[in-house]
Amino acid sequence: MHRLRLCSGVEAVSKFKRMGWIEARQKGSHVMMTKEGYEYTLSIPLHSELGPGILKKLIKQANISVEEFNNL
Length: 72
Hints:
Blueprint lengths: L8 H10 L3 E6 L2 E5 L7 E4 L6 H10 L4 H6 L1
Antiparallel strand pairs: 1-2, 2-3
């Protein structure tokens, strides 16, 4: 199992954009991202560093592996 590398909210948004997710809207400090064919809307807080729990939840909802996320 690969170790999750922590990143900021802005970096996470950038990584998900490279996977085809689109910024649908922003409310306060949270960016909502959507992708056609997925039931989830990713809600990414724009904090300086995202905790491992939030990142793991977003990765699971995006249906990708930790390794794929780290390589973006």
